[in-house]
Amino acid sequence: MPLKALKKETTERLSLEWVLHVKNYKLDLDKSRCVGCQVCSQACPKEAIQTRKQPRNAGEKAKKAGIDVDLSKCNFCGICEILCPYGAIRISVDGQHILSVVEKESFPQLIRDIEVNPTAPLLSSDKWGDSCPLDLIHVSTGANEAQMISVQKEYCPGCRVCEAKLPQGAIHVSRLFYGKLNVDAKKCPEGCKDCLEVCPIEGALLVSADDSKVHVDERFCVYCGACKIVCPVEDAINLRRTKVNHTAVRSGAWNKALERLTSPVEMTKELKSKGSSRARESVKMRMGMGEKKNA
Predict the structure, then answer these.
(1) Is the pLDDT of residue 78 over 50?
(2) 99 and 18 housed in the same domain
(3) How far is the CA of 185 from the CAs of 75, 182, 192, 219, 270, in angstroms?
(4) Same domain, 183 and 156
(5) Which residue(s) pair with 49 in the sheet?
(6) Tens of pLDDT along 150-191?
(7) Assigned domain for 275 exists
(8) What is the CATH number of the domain that holds 131?
(9) Torsions phi, psi for 67 (to 5 deg)
(10) Per residue in 202-216, pLDDT tens?
(11) Is this prediction's pTM over 0.85?
């Protein structure tokens, strides 16, 4: 048991801390980056994280869901940080950024694969900056006035809006989550735009000129679930994640998290796929050894 268990919350941050004899554990949530999605609460193995709707006054726009962490349940494992699409959570031990589940190789990491084409035509800094709805792409001038493009990968949810806005081939971004989001226009209340107002990705949700209802552009949706939480009508928004882009791992903890984030069916598909992949690799190795013997 910790000597001290501390919890502090301001309008900008939520922090939890364990002070032990020899170590100090800390969880820090940056509310400016948190979008109030479902990912961390669904993935937490201790059910320590809750998402809740925020009250609002008549005439106000919808507010993103609030996040709370139960200090009595949290064990600072770091799974919430690993799976947060927006990089809003950080775990530290004695002031150092440490994720115990990664060090123990019991949990994968999301693959945030972003590549800027160095041979792409020169673009203005405004063009690069305006291409990212989260302001994660920045331009600086290097030696010989060369244009240097930097991307804050740790905060990128993989929406790929930049790919659509910039010339083809200028940048490549891999998705973190794959899935399907459907807005049932028949169930949408007339004039309701709550989901659109909280969606952090510009262009992922759009109002149709035909029926004035919200529709999804799945080219840009990151399947985080921020819209689903604030929707006032149950099942008007249906979210199904089918795949998570992650590093290789064989872990019961990951299998359980994957099931909560996707479904038992999708988890089974991944396990079968991995099993087939391992079988193919085994056959290749055996064939390679056989070739050496015959040489």
Answers:
(1) yes
(2) yes
(3) 41, 9, 11, 19, 32
(4) no
(5) 69
(6) 999 999 999 999 999 999 999 999 999 999 999 998 999 888
(7) no
(8) 3.30.70
(9) -115, 135
(10) 999 999 888 888 999
(11) yes
